[in-house]
Automatic annotation (TrEMBL):
InterPro entries in the cross-refs: CheY-like_superfamily (IPR011006), NreC/VraR/RcsB-like_REC (IPR058245), Sig_transdc_resp-reg_C-effctor (IPR016032), Sig_transdc_resp-reg_receiver (IPR001789), Tscrpt_reg_LuxR_C (IPR000792), WalR-like (IPR039420)
The keyword DNA damage appears for this protein: no
Alphabetized SUPFAM superfamilies for the sequence: C-terminal effector domain of the bipartite response regulators (SSF46894), CheY-like (SSF52172)
Gene Ontology MF, one: DNA binding
Protein name in the entry: Oxygen regulatory protein NreC
Pfam families: GerE (PF00196), Response_reg (PF00072)
UniProt key word Transcription: yes
Annotated PANTHER family: NITRATE_NITRITE RESPONSE REGULATOR PROTEIN NARP, TWO-COMPONENT RESPONSE REGULATOR
Domain HTH luxR-type: 152-217
Alphabetically ordered keywords of this record: DNA-binding, Phosphoprotein, Transcription, Transcription regulation
Alphabetical GO biological process terms: phosphorelay signal transduction system; regulation of DNA-templated transcription
Amino acid sequence: MSKTRISILIADDHSVIREGLKILLGNEKDFCVIGEAATGKEAVDLAKQHSPDVVIMDLSMPILNGFEAMRQIRRARPATRLVVLSAYCDDEYVERTSEIGAHGFISKEHTFSTLANAIRQITRGKCPFLSLAHVDGAAQKSRKGAPKSLSDKGRNDGLTVRELQVLQLVSEGAANKQVAATLGISIKTVQKHRQQLMDKLDIHDTAGLTRYAIAAGVIDNSTTRKRSPA
């Protein structure tokens, strides 16, 4: 493994989130995913084993929650940087993770590029914790331009982490009900994210979303399956 690459451990109890992040992080030349954990205990064990540069940690983890997992990782591997990626972004959660010693807190509603840039800044020691907890996504949301090209491998066009998760599942053939169950959100919220995806990407059908996802590296062509009615 090249010493210039940032080694990353992904800790999230949803397999689709781990798989999606692994693909997106793998598209970045300076990142290397060295492991995935589905529980807090697995995250601690893998962090002890591999000593990653960064652990991306969800807070809602089984067996051992994200808070306690981060405490144990901090004790065992103090050089490892901890980045929280969570749907829960109340000030209380941000404060608790900061007190534990996390180095960044990113909402799942922020773009993947926000997460990637945060990881780079944190590993360089250039970014204080709170500046990552309140990233303003308005600039991304207000970007204007021509319809998105499918030829730019690895781009994500200002999509949020949640939108990327929905894109991955929809492009793999999951119906709205399946997406909602997998991500723990309502069908109405899934429909909202699908519409936002189409609006941002200037794409008007599911087949177009699938083509985009393949071209952007969100999914592999071999992972698409027979679609169920949405």
